[in-house]
Amino acid sequence: MNPSSTHSMYYAAIICPAQINDKVLQYKQWMKEQFGCTAALKSPAHITLVPPFWFETAKENELLQTLQSFTSVINHLEIHLYGFSHFGKRVLFIGVPENFNLNRIKNETEGHFTSAFAQSIKKDDRPFHPHVTIATRDMKPSHFEKAWEYFSRHKFDETFTTKTISLLKLGDGKWNVPGEKDWQVQKNLFD
After folding, report:
1. What is the value of pTM for the model shown?
2. Helix/strand/coil for 40
3. 184 inside domain
4. Which CATH number goes with the domain that contains 121?
5. Looking at the 3D structure of the chain, how many domains does it have?
6. DSSP secondary structure, 96-163, as one string
7. 85 belongs to a structural domain
8. Per-block average pLDDT, block size 10, for the chain (191 residues)?
9. Strands 174-182 and 164-171
């Protein structure tokens, strides 16, 4: 779908707590100062669950209601952020070690939104590779070596627990949060 004045871009994510966001922000700022990279500064530190999609702005309340109705079989989610890595020479990020429950939350969230809005939101065909982005899209491959030398000398090791999913919306050149939801736990049929 082509963007228009009647549609906005959205995505669903787990947003990192403020103290972790502040640490990530220092690395994003370094990339801005060194190389002029600003794309990653438009979002809070997050792990994407439903990739960006276009949706009719007038129907945003339907998205928010769908967010509010989300439930999971998982009570809470512990996320470990560890080390730096990259996708090619265009994206630098903080890694997330293998996490069964995070994979499950991603699948549940994506399924919840794609079943409610099959015409607008499609299942992501790419493998899930959770991460927290430091630099993306506007990092030139020619800057990669210097940036990677810097990040390979640094450590990142943080853990947080959450049960909150956020809906983000692009507006005024940055991603804002029109809605968040602490998910309810589905009752097990055998309880």
Report:
1. 0.93
2. helix
3. no
4. 3.90.1140.10
5. 1
6. ----HHHHHHHHHHHHHHHHH-TTT-----SPP--EEEEE-SS--GGGHHHHHHHHHT---EEEEEE-
7. yes
8. 77 98 98 96 97 95 96 93 95 96 96 94 92 94 93 96 97 95 75 47
9. antiparallel
